Amino acid sequence: MTLALPFCEHRSRIRLPDDPAGSYSAEPGTLAAQLRSRRAALRLTKVVAARRLRICVETYARWEAGLEPSDRNFRRIIRFLGYDPLVGGDSIGGQLRVERLRRGLSTVEVAALLGLDPETIRHVEIGAHNPTRRTRSVIERWLLHPPTPPT
User: Fold this and answer.
1) pTM across the whole model
2) Could you give the dihedral angle defined by the CA atoms of residues 106, 109, 113 and 115, in that order, rounded to the nearest 10 degrees?
3) Which domain CATH number covers 65?
4) Most buried of the four, 1, 2, 10, 146, by CB within 10 Å?
5) CA-CA distance, 94 to 125, in Å (whole number)?
């Protein structure tokens, strides 16, 4: 593959790493490792991977370096990886966080959908306190039948 930069006359040849058949693992560990593994399996550069995700290359590079993507980008990541890398765990907070990220929603948006305070959503997600019966009931109903946000 030849890379030609529009602002200079220099041309470089980039050798992508070989990916023997079957070496792509759907769950190699961290999200950063999963992104790197998928990109290598598809034999993509970071620039091309970023284009496929419709983000800038700097953002993609930060994700591969281990920085957490924003809430809105998880849907793109799921499509890029071809599977859902999110694991919710057994707690209601973990399940709430995973469902929120899968839908690309912020804590403020989920709070508005559920009629709860955004801080309550944050506290439940991180396990800072146990939700009241009413709050738990509202969250459980949303987890079973999540409404779509208004467009």
Assistant:
1) 0.64
2) 100
3) 1.10.260.40
4) 146
5) 6
